[in-house]
Amino acid sequence: MSILGNIFGKIFHRGAAAAPAGTPASTTVAAAPAQQPGTQPTAPAPVAMDRVDVEQVLNGMAAQNGQQLNWRTSIVDLMKLLDIDSSLQARKDLADELHYTGDKGDSAAMNIWLHKQVMHKLEENGGKVPADLKD
Q1: For residue 49, what is the enclosing H or E element?
Q2: Enclosing domain of residue 96
Q3: Separation CA 122–CA 113 (nearest Å)
Q4: Is residue 29, in this structure, part of any structural domain at all?
Q5: pTM of the prediction?
Q6: Element (H or E) spanning 111, and its range?
Q7: Does 33 reside within a domain?
Q8: Sign of the torsion formed by the C-alpha atoms of 58, 63, 64 and 66
Q9: Is-contact 71 58, C-beta < 8 A?
Q10: How does pLDDT run across 86-130, given as a tens digit for each residue?
Q11: Which of 62, 59, 61, 32 lies closest to 45, judged by CA?
């Protein structure tokens, strides 16, 4: 499985389990109303889907983790929180997976880019990601 796939799996499959009691880990996108009898056929109604609240899931995981990890800005800490290899080679592999075109020798710039790209990919694939995590 790809590194990004592992990240998705750790976040999206924990959605409801990682949410604190009494707070939803996801929001539901409502389906369009059904077609009325005797009307012209229309495109099928979208299926209701849950959007995982990425921030809430990761905050829940961080609260249960013994380390102080700054997952909000650090790709290394995000990978550590998710129990994924955060070595330089793993991050270079993730950069290849996400088609990074910058200098992989400049790990600071690569890490910043990786974090932003991971947050964008999480949102593109069903995650609810706050704007400040995508900037």
Answers
A1: strand 49-53
A2: 3-17+49-129
A3: 14
A4: no
A5: 0.75
A6: helix 107-124
A7: no
A8: positive
A9: yes
A10: 999 999 999 999 999 999 999 999 999 999 999 999 999 999 999
A11: 32
